[in-house]
Specification:
heterodimer; A: 114 residues; mainly beta; 4-stranded antiparallel sheet; B: 113 residues; 7-stranded mixed sheet; 11 strands; 0% helix; 51% strand
């Protein structure tokens, strides 16, 4: 079974700092990759997704992620964070042998100081 | 607007009691899921259903039961056999036609009295 690791559990940044959240998965086959965000008091929302094609994926609110197959990674980035980016971020993987099931990472809680 | 509705938002359970969490979707999605969210552990899959009258156990199904009598509804029962039920429960759905993201409800927070 595949697993997903998010190594940073808590990240604290000042506004305008750059962000990179790590995500690594364990499955060697074809994968679909997702980043979800959960703002305080809100439901999980899709931030961006990768299915195929250009490994650099752009999502909402200035976020992007890069799929590096050789490293089994799908790190999330944003050049300049804002206070409103304070949220919990989840990486998720759908492996081609898992039907439409998602495996989630443990989440990274981001706090942006104004 | 289409979406997923979970109710109640907060629920309390007494020892030895079964409680049922509701999940309804009007997205016409085929597949529905129940996750449990605990701090630092991300989301763990409890049960999922790909079609009506069919469901499968996820990674942590013990102490839980589900039914899928209607396409739009996937209630989760937390039984007295679940010894550590305090958590945030999330319901999700997804169309089964090709790859696509899951859509999530707002969640139900369950606590033990």
């Amino acid at each position: 079974a595949q697993s997903v690791s998010q190594h940073n559990h808590h990240v604290i940044l000042s506004e305008a700092a750059s962000l990179e959240l790590g995500c690594n998965y364990s499955y060697g086959g074809t994968v679909n990759l997702f980043w979800y965000v959960q703002y305080p008091g809100q439901h999980l929302q899709l931030l961006l997704k990768y299915f195929s094609g250009d490994p650099l994926v752009k999502g909402i609110k200035g976020f992007e992620a890069e799929f590096i197959k050789s490293k089994f990674s799908f790190n999330l980035r944003k050049p300049s964070v804002q206070w409103s980016d304070t949220a919990e971020y989840f990486c998720a993987v759908n492996a081609d042998n898992a039907g439409n099931m998602l495996t989630f990472g443990g989440g990274t809680r981001l706090m942006v100081k104004p | 607007d289409g979406g997923i509705t979970q109710s109640p938002k907060y629920l309390f359970r007494k020892e030895g009691q079964n409680v049922t969490l509701s999940c309804e979707q009007n997205l016409n999605h085929d597949a529905m899921y129940w996750y449990r969210q605990d701090p630092g552990q991300g989301l763990r899959l409890i049960y999922y259903s790909q079609i009506v009258n069919d469901f499968q156990k996820g990674d942590i199904a013990e102490g839980y039961s589900v039914s899928r009598e209607k396409k739009e509804s996937f209630p989760l029962t937390v039984t007295s056999a679940q010894k550590n039920p305090t958590a945030f429960y999330l319901c999700a759905s997804r169309t089964d036609r090709g790859a696509g993201p899951q859509h999530f409800g707002d969640g139900t927070r369950l606590s033990i009295l």
